[in-house]
Recover the amino acids of this structure.
């Protein structure tokens, strides 16, 4: 049936129907009257034998309907009319829901992007990441022999590729100079990651071998930006660090890799290399049908073979792989799950609040429902109608929440990027897709049913007679509904308390982190990165030459106090090394520690004290005997009983002398204690080490200034450009900014949970206020009587305050118990505070009590202001 | 009175099996087109008041048959000078009636076969 035609036809049908039913009754009445019955009696008799006209008419009409959709549509129309009549109520409910659903949408959109969206690579489900369960530092970096060993496991892996961890910057020289981000990859990389080609080709196996030539593959972005999308670019040359590279291909626009890059270069590993430096990531593709568990078992079985080949190299106990997605997500999963839990609680509170509002409203229209039941409306019909109304509210709230959530998540991530993976620049990758829309829809519907079902059932099951008899404004004081509403208020308070306690614990964590002395002085220090490309920096002489020249130029600048350089910042040292202590019994895999190389001045620049012995000087150069500094943890761990200064360690195929002990600093982030660490002068590090560093990551230039470091940027970058013969610097930050970034995740957690806690507190306060205000309004008469009988105003006030506060106290008691459990769940996010922190558990209830008291005080004051005469007369 | 017991509370006693009302209406209309009130009167008279149909329940049934195309309706002036909606059976309705009657007779036969030994 044509639906439109159907609707018109149906309207005529139903008009006809009521007309003929009316006619039927009339005819019957006339017949009865003709038989001698009194007219009034005849009317009754006719109606009786006809049956329930309304119901029958409805049934008849239903024949013509798509019954479900249409009766829902009728309900929707009715509900819309009802809601339009009480705009204040509607606005309050929709806003509360928008807040609750919006928060959920916001967090879910992040969860969706980070955790749920599949990787875009071909065979992504078979891609694995090679992990490095190192005894020193688990950074998942590998070396060339390991890589070749992995490649030989063809039973397990179809493809094994390597790529740079962070990737060095490249100084794109010639014409306009800029720092571009390039990474080294092995030849199979583009195949494994399914990179689409726009022009040319990717690297051949020959180009990825030693002496394979200087070749480069461009990203779409760089090709467009720098070369205007030149179609004839393949075969042309490009200057990186003043050396020419041949462009062999351009990758398509849509390629998104784990490590973003402007261009790619071949690693050109030596197939017989014994270089033990760990400096790149490895990913692989499992053979079809091989599971991760099988792959790990095979790797485990094959490990002795590797170990025979390279007996005393590496403190790694074994090799393992894990699903690629897992290692990309990392520890973000826990953070996000906590957020999802928190917003879930917020939504529950919002639901309780709205349920309370609806209950009040439904109670006041109880008589209406009673009348409708009396007229023949089925209970299901009434419940359905109330549910339609609540779902309509929740869906409206949901739509608003979708907008709210989407805007707020973008704003939030722009303010606090949180270091989450996969979210793009400032969260730009977070978008609306069917999952987010579906989630919001489902949440809205479930919410609507959840908060609507309570009032609907409680109203529709009431006794008809008493409801009809009861005077309208006294209904609703019924014991049962009072109890339901009190229960709702209690649960709101307890949920809010749980959230507030979690938020308070995270705030304490954040404060504790900031109270941690990092072990160095980050103020007034400028950091900037320079990529050391080119042949000149493939040996120690070239690198130390640049460092000497650069530091001399910077030291000459007015206002510069100290300058230094290093390959790591003290808050984030990710390299480790194995060594033996001379004089200690030889043990395989004995000793590992963190390791970094620096110039003289690094320690005094960061004001890291040398506790024993001496700091490096310019004289600790390639010609001088090899020396090291160690930190306190190292000394405690490896020299528990003696003075380490003057002792020797065997490290990178030579003997090095320990010349001093420096104070510990938080090299792995503020939340972690210091690792044992060896510090070496860059000028004495082997050529291969310095070359490896120059190839895999930029060098940090560091300058301590007198006054605001920002004002020195122009002068410093100019001097460095001269010293390096034209290399640009990038990522110019003060050390304070770097410190801020290092606690970004904790800041994000704290910020969000505090916002959720505040929302919960507000909602709970509104909930209590609403309940007490309504109860006072309902009991005006009772209060009037009490006053007339001699209760004074303060007694009344106390009565109301006590009733409200009792609910709050019960809620807080339950909430405190629940919070112990919840706080335990977030224990892994806490630092410097126990999950049962007494200060938090004592102070949060006090705060909540105060807020609850304010919420109760206002209605109590109104109750006390009741004029007994007015109240008694009002009925 | 509780809300559960509606006005039709004593209707259980005269509930017909599903479809019975339809057959009777079709049979009546097969004999002669008529309007709703007349249909009820006719069925009650013919059944010698053994079947007390709740008068209103005729209308949902009529609507169902209208929708299925078994009957047609038309506004006419009745002999008593009343504007009434007169129903008549369609060819499709006649065929349906035939089918239903034979099915009904089969069912009756079946039921009486089951009941017969109990009587004997």
């Amino acid at each position: 049936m044509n639906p439109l035609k159907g609707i018109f036809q149906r309207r005529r049908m139903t008009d006809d129907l009521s007309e003929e039913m009316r006619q039927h009754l009339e005819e019957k009445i006339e017949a009865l009257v003709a038989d001698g019955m009194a007219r009034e009696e005849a009317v009754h008799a006719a109606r009786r034998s006809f049956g329930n006209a309304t119901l029958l008419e409805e049934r008849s009409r239903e024949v013509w309907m798509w019954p479900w959709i249409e009766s829902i549509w009728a309900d929707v129309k009715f509900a819309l009319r009802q809601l339009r009549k009480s705009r204040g109520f509607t606005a309050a409910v929709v806003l509360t829901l928008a807040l609750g659903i919006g928060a959920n949408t916001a967090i879910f959109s992040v969860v969706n992007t980070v955790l749920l969206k599949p990787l875009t690579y071909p065979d992504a489900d078979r891609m694995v990441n090679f992990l490095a369960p190192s005894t020193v530092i688990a950074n998942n970096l590998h070396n060339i022999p390991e890589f070749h060993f992995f490649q030989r496991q063809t039973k397990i892996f179809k493809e094994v590729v390597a790529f740079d961890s962070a990737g060095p910057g490249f100084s794109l020289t010639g014409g306009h100079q800029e720092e571009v981000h390039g990474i080294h990859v092995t030849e199979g990389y583009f195949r494994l990651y399914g990179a689409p080609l726009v022009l040319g080709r990717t690297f051949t196996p020959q180009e990825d071998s030693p002496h394979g030539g200087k070749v480069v593959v461009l990203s779409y972005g760089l090709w467009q930006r720098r070369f205007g999308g030149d179609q004839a670019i393949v075969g042309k040359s490009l200057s990186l660090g003043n050396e020419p590279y041949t462009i062999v291909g351009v990758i398509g626009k849509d390629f998104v890799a784990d490590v973003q890059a402007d261009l790619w270069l071949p690693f050109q590993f030596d197939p017989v290399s014994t270089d033990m430096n760990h400096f790149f990531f490895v990913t692989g593709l499992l053979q079809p049908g091989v599971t991760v568990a099988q792959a790990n078992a095979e790797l485990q079985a094959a490990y002795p073979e590797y170990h025979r080949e390279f007996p005393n190299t590496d403190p790694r106990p074994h090799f393992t792989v894990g699903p690629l997605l897992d290692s990309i997500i990392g520890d973000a999963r826990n953070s996000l799950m906590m957020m999802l839990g928190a917003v879930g609680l917020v939504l529950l509170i919002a639901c309780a609040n709205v349920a309370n509002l609806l209950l009040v409203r439904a109670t006041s229209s109880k008589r209406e429902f009673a009348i409708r039941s009396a007229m023949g409306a089925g209970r299901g019909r009434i419940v359905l109608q109330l549910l339609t109304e609540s779902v309509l509210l929740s869906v409206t709230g949901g739509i608003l929440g979708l907008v709210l959530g989407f805007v707020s998540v973008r704003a939030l991530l722009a303010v606090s990027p949180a270091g989450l993976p996969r979210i793009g620049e400032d969260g730009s990758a977070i978008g609306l897709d069917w999952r987010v829309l579906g989630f919001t829809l489902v949440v809205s519907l479930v919410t609507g049913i959840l908060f609507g079902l309570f009032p609907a059932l409680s109203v529709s099951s009431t006794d008809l007679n008493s409801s009809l008899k009861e005077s309208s404004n006294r209904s609703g004081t019924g014991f049962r509904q009072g109890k339901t509403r009190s229960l709702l208020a209690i649960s709101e308070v307890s949920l809010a308390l749980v959230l507030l306690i979690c938020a308070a614990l995270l705030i304490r964590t954040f404060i504790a982190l900031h109270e941690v002395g990092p072990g160095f002085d980050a103020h007034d220090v400028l950091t900037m990165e320079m990529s050391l490309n080119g042949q000149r920096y493939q040996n120690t002489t070239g690198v130390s030459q640049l460092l000497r020249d650069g530091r001399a130029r910077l030291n000459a600048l007015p206002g510069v106090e100290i300058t230094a350089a290093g390959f790591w910042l003290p808050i984030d040292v990710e390299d480790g090394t194995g060594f033996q202590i001379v004089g200690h019994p030889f043990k395989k895999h004995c000793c590992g520690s963190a390791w970094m190389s620096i110039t003289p001045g690094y320690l005094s620049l960061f004001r890291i004290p040398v506790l024993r012995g001496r700091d490096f000087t310019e004289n600790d150069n390639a010609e001088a005997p090899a020396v090291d500094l160690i930190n306190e943890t190292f000394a405690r761990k490896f020299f528990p009983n003696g003075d380490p200064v003057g002792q020797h360690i065997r490290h990178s195929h030579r003997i090095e002398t320990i010349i001093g002990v420096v104070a510990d600093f938080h090299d792995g982030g503020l939340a972690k204690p210091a690792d044992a660490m060896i510090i070496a002068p860059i000028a004495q590090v082997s050529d291969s080490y310095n070359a490896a560093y120059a190839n895999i990551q930029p060098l940090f230039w560091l300058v301590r200034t007198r006054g605001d470091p920002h004002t020195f940027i122009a002068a410093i970058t100019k001097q460095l450009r001269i010293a390096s013969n034209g290399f640009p610097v990038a990522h110019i930050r003060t050390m304070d900014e770097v410190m801020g970034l290092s606690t970004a995740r904790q800041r994000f957690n704290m910020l969000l949970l505090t916002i959720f806690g505040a929302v919960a507190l507000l909602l709970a306060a509104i909930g209590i206020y609403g309940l007490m205000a309504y109860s006072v309004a309902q009991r005006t008469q009772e209060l009037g009587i009490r006053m007339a009988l001699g209760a004074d105003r303060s007694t009344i006030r106390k009565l109301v305050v006590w009733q409200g506060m009792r609910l709050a106290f019960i809620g807080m008691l339950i909430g405190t118990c629940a919070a112990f459990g919840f706080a335990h769940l977030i224990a892994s996010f806490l630092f410097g505070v126990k999950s049962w922190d007494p200060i938090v558990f004592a102070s949060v209830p006090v705060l909540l009590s105060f807020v609850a008291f304010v919420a109760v005080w206002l209605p109590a004051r109104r109750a006390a202001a009741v004029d007994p005469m007015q109240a008694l007369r009002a009925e | 009175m509780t809300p559960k017991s509606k006005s039709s509370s004593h209707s259980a006693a005269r509930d017909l099996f599903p479809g019975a009302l339809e057959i009777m209406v079709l049979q009546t209309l097969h004999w002669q087109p008529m309007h709703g009130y007349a249909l009820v009167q006719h069925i009650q008279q013919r059944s010698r008041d053994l079947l007390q149909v709740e008068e209103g329940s005729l209308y949902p049934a009529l609507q169902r048959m209208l929708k299925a195309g078994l009957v047609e309706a038309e506004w006419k002036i009745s002999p008593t000078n009343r504007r009434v909606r007169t129903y008549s059976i369609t060819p499709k309705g006649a065929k349906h009636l035939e089918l239903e009657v034979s099915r009904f007779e089969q069912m009756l036969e079946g039921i009486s076969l089951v009941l017969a030994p109990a009587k004997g």
User: Anything to note?
Assistant: Chain A touches chain B at residues 13, 16-17, 19-21, 23-24, 27-28, 49-53, 55-57, 59-64, 373-374, 376, 379, 463-465 (CB under 8 Å). The two ends of chain A are 57 Å apart (CA to CA). The longest strand of chain A covers residues 243-251. The longest helix of chain A spans residues 379-415.
